[in-house]
Amino acid sequence: MTVSSSPVLVLGATGDVGGEVVRLLVAAGEQVHALHRSPEQAQGLAAAGARPVLARLGQREEVAAALRDVRRVLLLTPPVPHQLELDRQVVELAAQERLEHVVRISASDSHLRSPVPWARAHAHADHLLAATDLPWTVLRPSAFLQNITRQSPTVRRGVLPHTAGRGAVSWVDARDVAAVAAAVFADGPQAHLRATYFLTGPQSLSYGEVAERLTAGLGRRVRAVALPKAVYRLALRAGGVDAFTAAGLGAQFADVVRHQVDVDVTGEVARLTGRPPRDLDTWVRENRDQLV
């Protein structure tokens, strides 16, 4: 891995992907500026070896100031109703600054006509970035294995609720997506100029098959329980998920995954990082304490 003299600004630096990108880039000797919103986050980022940068996405002057100090950026925005506006602002400011490289985390189901709100937002943002003169690379990961961890309360009770029917997902570990991002930054913009990579794990698995792997890995039975879309949304709301996210997840799994129109397995993680992506069995072993 080569080291550039220009700093990287990591957006989403406290999340699963962004946090791992920070760790990998710091370990490689890169100068990393990490966006944050609170003193507690700043302490953790500084301890990880990054330079904490206090700025809120959506606040134009704050984001502009953060971008003026760097030449490269990991563009990663949260799935919120105004996600596209956050992306639009960063893309516009990055173009004004003529940054050397924008690496954007999109989604494998990115589509302008998607019923999933964040998939639509990702598609529009990808088009906005493509319309600029910036050197960019877009990464489109499939569903994260970490999403299963977020269902740990029901998994502990032996239940894996879903609304995906027999549809399968090419589950990917967020750490593998981060490893690709770090490798792309290390290779430099010319090696991945205006390239789009679909990132998946090594297997495409239905929720029934995920439940079987959980059963084997945890040593106790976990059942996949199929729910109607409306009931699934209500279950998410009862578990504390906000209305926007619950509706989006319902659409993602009932309208996209159920009909098997998401991306199939690719070999891009191995090609770009030089090692295979983690599989579900490995992930279960590593996260067993959170699931039992």
Query: What fraction, in percent, of the residue positions are helical?
Result: 40-55%
What separation lies between the terminal Cα atoms?
38 Å
Q: Helix-strand pattern, N to C?
A: EHEHEHEHEHEHHEEHEEHEHHHHH
Tally the beta strands. 11
Number of distinct helices? 14
CATH C-level class of the domain at 8-142 and 173-199 and 264-277 = Alpha Beta
What is the CATH topology assignment of the domain at 8-142 and 173-199 and 264-277?
Rossmann fold
Mean pLDDT value: 95
Question: Over all CA atoms, what is the radius of gyration?
Answer: 19 Å
Describe the main β-sheet briefly: 7 strands, parallel
> Please, what is the CATH homologous superfamily of the domain at 8-142 and 173-199 and 264-277?
NAD(P)-binding Rossmann-like Domain
Give the neighbour order of strands across the main sheet.
Answer: 3-2-1-4-5-6-9
Find the structural class using helix and strand composition.
Answer: alpha/beta
Low-confidence stretches: none
- Give the oligomer, counting copies of the same chain as homo and different chains as hetero: single chain
Strand content: 15-25%
